[in-house]
Design goal:
Layout: H1 2-18, H2 25-42, H3 51-79, H4 83-111, E1 124-134, H5 139-143, E2 151-160, E3 163-166, E4 170-173, E5 179-182, E6 186-191, E7 197-206, H6 214-227, E8 240-247, E9 257-260, H7 268-272, E10 283-292, E11 300-307, E12 314-323, E13 326-330, H8 333-337, E14 344-347, E15 353-357, E16 360-364, E17 372-374, H9 378-398, H10 400-403, H11 414-464
Antiparallel strand pairs: 1-5, 1-6, 1-10, 2-3, 2-4, 2-7, 7-8, 9-10, 11-12, 11-17, 12-13, 13-14, 15-16, 16-17
Amino acid sequence: METLRRSFCKVRARRRMFSPEPASEYQEGLSKFQVNCRRRESVRVKRISGGRAGLEREIKKKMSLEESVCLGSAKLISASKSESQILEASKTLLLGCSRLDTLRTELGLLTRGEWRNLQRSRLAEVSLSDLRIPLAWKQRDQLSEMGDNKKFAVFCIIRSGTQVYDTSLISPIDRSVTDLSFSDIFGFSNLPSDFVIKIEVYSHCISPGLLGTPKNWIRKIKSKITTNQKTHSSRVASFDLLAETSLTIDDAKDAIECHDLDKTAATATTSAKDHQMPQLFGQICFRLAVSPYCKQEPLMTGSLSVSWPESEIIVPGCFARLMNWKLEIWSSTAQFRRGEQPWKVVSIDSMSLVREMGDKFCVENEKEEHADFICDTTEEITDWVEEILNNIEDYSKWNKAAIDQMEVLSPNMKNELGVRRLRQKTKSKLMMLYNRISSNDLQGMNFQRNEIISRGSERSFNVRM
């Protein structure tokens, strides 16, 4: 009898081994979804070759990619087994729809001929980091145990033109959380001086799920089975807009600043569900750094001759470079290639005056020596004067970004920045501990020395007596 049971178990094991497993719909949808996300994030913002037609093709290509991501997100929601999977897929679906809307808007501007094609020298790179949103819970929720026990999931969408990004999802958020901190770093490229970066805060009230009583849970399951609910639209986590704010070049600074949030941007449905959303304090903290490309990349280089008014001295064959709102002059190209310092530097700001005089031009400043620059052809003079005038105009537009040196962070610097801050924090703590221990040891040594001195003086006094 025992042998029959063993043989029967072996047969069942063989059948299990050779029977093909059905493909998991969830794993298949997840793999496709991740591939599309990687392809989407690998698309970098770049200057499109081919003019208007090339840009139109690129926008349509991105639109088809976003549509496939939205479709994959919907399939992933239908195959999700946990609430965290539904939240992440719903967030990606909302992000994909937002990107589709911005791409359609950009395509409409392109077809109507309202698209601006600015030179790279008049654009800038921007980074947004250190996002923090303080919460304002009610006092009874903070102090009493009978307060509100709702939990939420919050994330932000940051957009500027066709560049749309999302933060990581923070969940769960309850009354014990005082503020929302996002460690993400967002980089924007090719932004003009009149850029607008919009930050939108979205929230979702997490359902109790298995945290409810068993009777309620069983009742919900029975009702779903009896009504035969097969629609997947109800599984999508609806994120509601809490607040938003817009950032411009005036908000740029190489430090963390506070900005007011606009809560009036919430829709009517959002205001109706105000009791199901976390209460915001009304402000947002961030660090917005702006660095124009003309600070690191030369606008124009060439050969010039330098002369002075009321003088016959002419220095021919000089090498000139216009960069970082400075016209730098070297005596020769070889001197520039050796990395030597320029022998003459002309500052350019909003108060600079440019004059074109036949075969030469000059840039006049109040506290600088006047000099004339001679070119071989009038076309070269026209190019130099045009670039300098554009640079003067950009100086007033970029405001503090043209004066201050701001460190633009890259999204790849997220881990390095955390390690660097941790090292600095650890070092400061160790130094404080060392100083405290050293001061205590020094104080103890002083006490011991004073006791020895007092005892020695007492002994000498007793011997004399």
